[in-house]
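tl;dr need the bound structure. longer version: we got a ligand (flavin-adenine dinucleotide) that a collaborator sent over and nobodys looked at where it sits. i said id run it. heres the input, straight from their email, havent touched it
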Amino acid sequence: MNTVTRPRILVVGAGFAGVECVRRLERKLSPDEADVTLVTPFAYQLYLPLLPQVASGVLTPQSIAVSLRRSKKYRTRIIPGGAIGVDLKSKVCVIRTITDQIVNEPYDYIVLAPGSITRTFDIPGLTDHAFGMKTLAEAAYIRDHVISQLDLADASQDPVERASRLQFVVVGGGYAGTETAACLQRLTHAAVKRYPRLDPGLIKWHLIDIAPKLMPELGDKLGSSAQEILRRRGIEISLGTSIAKAGPEEVTFTDGRVIPTRTLIWTAGVVASPLIATLGAETVKGRLAVAPEMNLPGNDGVFALGDSAAVPDLAKGDGAMCPPTAQHALRQGRHVADNVIASLRGGPMRPYVHKDLGLVVDLGGTDAVSKPLGIELRGLPAQAVARGYHWSALRTNVAKTRVMTNWLLNAVAGDDFVRTGFQARKAARLKDFEYTDAYLTPEQVRAHVEGTSRQE
Ligand SMILES: Cc1cc2nc3c(=O)[nH]c(=O)nc-3n(C[C@H](O)[C@H](O)[C@H](O)COP(=O)(O)OP(=O)(O)OC[C@H]3O[C@@H](n4cnc5c(N)ncnc54)[C@H](O)[C@@H]3O)c2cc1C
C-alpha cells in the first residue's frame, strides 16, 4: 500500500523552465522533503534556439535533444505524456500518456512550464499548408522537404513546376524566422552545386514580416546590418507584408503578389500553450497572469513561468512582462524552484528580476549580428559570441561535445544534403506537429475529475 505523506510537486513541461526547476528541486530538497514528478511528452529537453541549425543540417537532431536521464542524481519521477487540463479546485492535473491513457495526477504544488505553440491567424489555408519551426520533428522534416524540392525540381521537365519548387517563403522577421531563412538559404545555395541541371538563379528565398523592421530589438543599425547581409545573399525581404492566402502550390502576399511555392514556413510569433486556457484563470495575451514571485494569486501552490506565463518584468518596469525567451525561462526555472521550496518550508518568496543580456543572431557561416550587454557586434566576433553563448547554455557536457563536434565537422567537411525520407508520406503541417487539439475545456476538466473521483 502506498502511504506517501510527503508534499507532491508536479512540474509540467521539460523545456528551459521546467528542467531548470526540476534540477534545482532535486539539488536543494532532500528526498524525504517532497516527491517531484515531471510530465513531458518527450524524453529530452530541446535546445530550441539551435533548431534552424538542425533544419539546415549544421547540427544533427540528437545534438540539441538533451537527455533527461543522464545521471543517477536525477531522481524525479517522469510521466511520459502531456497535461491536457488542470483542475485548480481539486488540485488535479489530467494527463494523456504517450499510449493515449488518460490519468489524473493529484498535486500539492504545480509548476506550469508547458511553453508556447506557434501563433497562427485566421488566414485561409495557413494551418493546412504552412510548416512551423517549433519542434525537433518540424526542423528535421523541413530539412528533408527543402532537399526534396531540389530533387524534384531537378527531375522535372516542367519549367513551371521547377520554378515553384525552387521558391521558398518564410514568414516572421523575429530571430526565429530570420535565422531559419538565413540558415536554409545557405543550405540550398550549397546544395545546388550538386545539381548541375538546375539553374541556381531560379532559387529564391523570401522573408516577409508585417512589421516595418526585422528584429526591432536589435536596434536600427544592427537590424539594418542583418538586412544587408541577407539581401547580399539574395534573400528578398518584404516588410509591412503578410500572407493573404496559402495554397498547396502558391502563396498570396497581402501586397497582391502571388508566389508559386511548395514551401511556406510560418514563424510569426508564439502564444502560450493551450494548457493555460484549461485553468479558467486570468490571462494576459493568453499567458497565465502571475505575480512577480511567479505564483498564481488566490491559488496556493500554483506557479507558472516561461513562455506560458505573463511574468512581470520588474527590471523594465512600466507594467512590462518578460519576453518569451530562453534567457528568461531558464532563470525563472531556477527562481521558481527556490520559491516553491520557500513556500514548502514556510519561508518568504522572492520576486523575479532579471535584466536582459541582449540578443545573438546566427545567420550561418561567419555571418551573425549580436548585441551582448548593449555592445553591437557583426561578423566573426558576433558569431563567436552567438555560438559561445549557446554552447555554454547547453545543459550537459555530452550535449556541448556533440554540438561542438558537429560545428567542427560541418566547417571542415560540409554537408552531404542527404534526404532521409522519414515522415515523407505523413501529414506534416503546423496542425499535425503541435497537437493543439489534445486539450480539454475547463468544463471538461472539471467533469472528468469529478467523474473519476466518484468512481474511486
Ligand atoms: C527557432 C527558435 C529560435 C529561438 N531562439 C532564441 C534565442 O536565440 N534566444 C532566446 O533567448 N530564446 C530563443 N527562442 C525562444 C526560446 O526557445 C523560448 O522562449 C524558450 O524555449 C521558452 O522556454 P519554456 O521552458 O517556457 O518552453 P519550452 O522550452 O518550449 O518548453 C516547453 C516544454 O513543455 C513541453 N510541453 C508542451 N505542452 C505540454 C503539455 N501539455 N504537457 C507537458 N509538457 C508539455 C514541450 O514539449 C517542451 O518540452 C527561440 C525559439 C525558437 C522556436
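gonna send this back to them w/ a short note. Residues 314 and 353 are 6 Å apart (CA to CA).
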